[in-house]
Amino acid sequence: MTITIYHNPACGTSRNTLAMIRQSGEEPEVIEYLKTPPSRERLAELIAAMGISPRELLRQKGTPYAELELDAPRWSDGELIDFMMAHPILINRPIVETPLGTKLCRPSEAVLDILPNPDIGPFTKDDGEVVIDSDGRRVR
């Protein structure tokens, strides 16, 4: 199995996650999910593999979340997936699949928990936050 990232290049968290994957020595399959959304079946598989509910995958910021009243408890899991299919921007990102698991990588350093080689050396995010220091220690 290769590493796959459901990516939005406009998202700093997604860019940092991709950079950590590459720094681990892997070149992932990059799926820009806004251009090529997963099928409904694939999205349901990803949600199940992450062990979260569709509601937990919904992105609120910069989306029609409030306008669609998606915080209302009346929506079933299937209906929430339907909303994500109709509006892929509602799918939170980045989602990463590796041989060790599938995870919504927020914060971006969550990807280290599922990388086959998490010893990526020093890493600093785009915004200057140090994730791994010069001694190779993860900063929390």
How would you characterize this protein structure?
The chain is α+β, with helices and mostly antiparallel strands and 140 residues long. It is built from four helices and six strands. The chain has helices spanning 12-23, 40-50, 54-57, 77-86, and strands at residues 4-7, 29-32, 95-98, 101-104, 123-124, 130-132. The strands form two sheets. Strands 2-1-3-4 form a four-stranded mixed β-sheet. β5 (123-124) and β6 form a beta hairpin. The two termini are 29 Å apart. The mean pLDDT is 96.
Order of helices and strands: EHEHHHEEEE
Rg measurement, Å:
16 Å
Residue-averaged pLDDT:
96
- Helix content range: 25-40%
* Total DSSP helices: 4
Structural class, by secondary structure, is: alpha+beta
Strand content: 15-25%
The 3D shape can be described as elongated
Largest sheet: 4 strands, mixed
| N→C terminal distance | 29 Å
Task: Flag low-confidence runs.
Answer: none
Using DSSP, what is the number of strands?
A: 6
Strand order of the largest sheet: 2-1-3-4
Which features would summarize this protein structure in a list?
140 residues, alpha+beta, four-stranded mixed beta sheet, two-stranded antiparallel sheet, 26% helix
Question: Can I get a quick summary?
Answer:
With 140 residues, the chain is an alpha+beta fold. It contains 4 helices and 6 strands. The chain is elongated.
